[in-house]
Amino acid sequence: MASRRNVLQERFFTSLISGDRAAARDIVDKALQADTPATKILSHLFWPTLDQFQNLHRNDQLTPLAYNFATRLLRQLVDQMQIRLEQSTRRGTKVLIVSGAEQSEEIAAQMAADLLEADGYTVFYAGGGIANDEVVEQLTELKADKLVIFGAVSSTVPATRLLIDRMHEIGANEHVQVIVGGGVFNRADGLAEEIGADLWANNPTELVEQLQAEPGRRMTPDQRTVGRKRRTTKRSAA
After folding, report:
1. Which of 18, 129, 218, 229 has its C-alpha lying 20 to 30 A from 190's C-alpha?
2. Domains, the chain, ranges and CATH?
């Protein structure tokens, strides 16, 4: 079963990086005809394939053309899959989702948005390239309960660190649970804790599970390492 799934994923990957729209759609259509749930297609086909070409792109093992083919085509398929997700009863919980600026990061965040919405959350998906001040302002305007940040590349980390630090400075973290996910947080053990996130997940499916399991978890001040060096330096200088 696993080998067959790997073969299917490889065929899907090849169709994406070559820009073969018909072949990619055919693979998805056959999965749907076999009564494969939309959630499983997202978690067992779309996500691992995205992770595969993300890693190749990060290591300069994929041409810009192939990366563009893959991201544009996969985003289209993710859009189409959203309407097939079975919707659960609304939870009355608002979630704001942002991501790094890379196309692949936005697709990962979009999959997370679709799965969380299907699980009953009220989701506001902003994508990448949003200034931290705007994110904080939007959290206040929405009276959001949770902030989800998806990142795949290392350049996303500093902005995420500054955003969480800013939330702590103004007290927004008292009401908003911060969750991070994606490749960059998976590769560096302890990074999510270091920057002060309350929860972290390897992929969109795990994100939904984490929110179900620990909806109220918060990083305590003694667990956070973000900003400690700066505060220690200030005290030493004094």
Report:
1. 129
2. 2-82 (1.10.1240.10), 94-213 (3.40.50.280)
